[in-house]
Structure formats: C-alpha cells, structure tokens
User: Fold these one by one.
Assistant:
Number 1:
Amino acid sequence: MTGTDKVAILLLYLGDEVTRKVYEHMDDDEIKKISKSMARLGHITRGTISEVVEEFTNIANPEAGIFSQGDEFVRKVLEKALGPAKATALMEELNASSYGDLVDILSNMDSKSIANFLSQEHPQTIAVILAKLKSKQTSEIISLLPQELQAEVVLRIADVEQVSPEILLEIDEVLKKEIKSMGGTARYKVGGIEKVVDMFNHFERSKEKQILDTLDVLNPPLAELIRKHLFTFEDIFQLDDKSIQSVMREISNDTLTLAMKTSPDEVKDKIFRNISSRAAEMIKEDLEVMGPVRLSDVEKAQS
C-alpha cells in the first residue's frame, strides 16, 4: 500500500468535511493523486483502517469498515474544496488517467492475447484502444485480428481524433474486467491520419497492401491519403543526394544490404553514389554472394 493510498483511506474514514479542509492545504497535483486513489479503492477492511489510523494518529477505531464511494465522493469533495469548474477539470483529468492505466496494462500484454479479446469488441472500441498504443504494437495486433476487421479498424483509427472522458471510462471498465477474467467537455487526442501512417510503417508489405486494397473499396480518399504519406524504400530515389546521405548515416551496412536485395537497379545506383566507395564495394560483394532470403525480412529491413 502506497503512502497516497493510506492518505486516501484515512480521508475516506474521516469524511468529506475533513477531507475538504485538508484539500485546502494541498496543491492540485497532491489533490489529483489522492482523489485518483480514492476513486479506485474498493472495500476497505476494518483491519486496514485500523492500521492506517494507528499509523497516522496512534488511535485505532476498528468498529466498521468503509466502502469507497468512488467518483461521487471525489466529485463532492472537490466541488466543496475547489468549486464546480475546477472540480470538473480535475475529474476529467482523473478519468483520462484511468484510461491511461488500461493502456499501460495492454502495453505489457502480448499482441496475440490482446487481439483475441479485442476481436469480440465493436470496431470503434478496438480503434479507440489501439489508437493509444505504440504504432508497432498496434500494427501487430491489427495483423492478428480477423481479416474482415482489419481495414475497418484502420478506417476508424483514422477517423477517431478525439474521445470524451465518459467513453474512455466506459471502455476502461469493460476491458479491465475482460483482461482480469483470461471518461465531460474535454476531448483527448487518440488517433488520426498520423497514427495510421505510423502504424502502416510497421506492417509487413503484404499486410499493408491487403489493408490498403480493402480501404480502396471502403474509403478511397483515405486510402489515397495514406499512400501519399507513406514513405517506401523505393522513395529514396526521389530524394536529393544530401537527404540520402543523411538517411544512410543512420542505417547499418547489414540492414542496408538486406533492404537492397529486391530493389531496382536505379535505386541501388543512387544509394551507391551517396555512400563511401568502400561501403559500396562491400555491399555489392555481399549482394552477389547472398542466397535466398525471406521477403518479410527484406521488407522489415526496408521499413
């Protein structure tokens, strides 16, 4: 149990009037931390109350347990201490941070497990959740979803720019229950075209093509917009020499050799002109003796 949890338990035990007076002597960050702890505490045993009270006051009162009233209690105390407007703003931050906890949980789960339980959810719910994960993990999960869902989810991620705190909380509560068994006026940035493009950069080329082909049918303008934003290895041919040299400095020779395995000769020639003659000779020799490689490995190197 953290120190913040102990303070939250003590204040719940003492009631909202005492809590209001205590909050008057705290800054916003302290209030937010304690309120968040209050909102997530469930039933608190008599033994726990006794330990906390004894630690703070050396006077134990084990007569009864208490049950956290969650958001309702927190909002009432915040309004008395800070006024309705500031209380609303803080509650919205708390709701969003609860959603952030869910994102942390998912970030530490394997992609296959996430795809398995998300596949039962509505595409919009899947989109809101995946839009907050890192693009690499998002692309892995989408690749593992049923094929008929994949393009639909991508379409909705591109569409979902802002989500209300209430929706975030509803999703948070539902999915946390599912994970265990196997959030006003503010809006929170979750997806958009930038997220989709970043996500596509982590797809294997075959998966990228399959989803884009489906989007050509579902939403042609979006498919075209994604294509315009995507940078492929062959696009290096369109860059000026200075830009190519900057890119090449960030790539190891081994990765570059693998990436060039299937490249057209004009792309190879342009790259060779923008790296040292020694590096160019080494890569040419490696390409000549390189045997068959998996296309997925080449695509990974190119990305």
Number 2:
Amino acid sequence: EALTMVCAQVMGNHVAITVGGSNGHFELNVFKPLIANALLHSLRLLGDASGSFEKKCVRGIEANKERISKLLNESLMLVTALNPKIGYDNAAAVAKKAHKEGLTLKEAALKLGVLTEEEFHQFVVPEKMIGPSDD
C-alpha cells in the first residue's frame, strides 16, 4: 500500500511536470520551479520508498528453487517447443490431454505415442527457452 501511494504521487508529479512543460509559452519557461520541485519530490519519494521496501520486505527473501524447477518443468507452455518437431495439431493434442488428465507434457506425449522419452528430452529444454540465445 505504501508503494502504491508513492506511485500515485509520482504519477501526479508527472502530470504536473507535463503541464508545466506544455504551458511554458516563452523561451524561458516560468514553470521551471514547478517542474524542478515535482521532479525532485518524485526522486526523493522513489529513493526513500525503494530503500525502505528493500530493507523491510525484500531483504532475506530466498527463492524456492525446487518449487520453481517443478513448476517450470510441469508448465504446459513448454508445448511450444514441440510445434516445430511434431506439428501444431499433435502439440495441441498433447497439451489438451495433459490439461484434461492432469499429466505432464511428457506423460501425455508418451501416452499419445507422438514422441519417445528421449525425443521429448531432446526437444523440450526449458533452459533454452527462458533467456536470450544465439540461434
């Protein structure tokens, strides 16, 4: 809630800065004090709020790597890696079966007979799908 209030204030300051910038009708914009004040206020708010949020909320948080790995490897979205290998229709059938029966993609692909276990592991490599690549 505190961060949301900070964001609301910063957005309001942004509007003030925009209005100040658009209403400066002469070469020397007489709204510069308003613009500077709003900008500096936003910078102070964001800096203070970020530091407080890190100290009181973020510090000490640790990722549950086992759960992340489990969710990643069981994600039905990984089926996109199969499209170029088995075609859209077969990939869609795998995803539908996995979803309807509560199976993993691998289990569904094996039951449908569209891939072997080795082929599945060759084609579905989440690590290659979650970041930039040279391909």
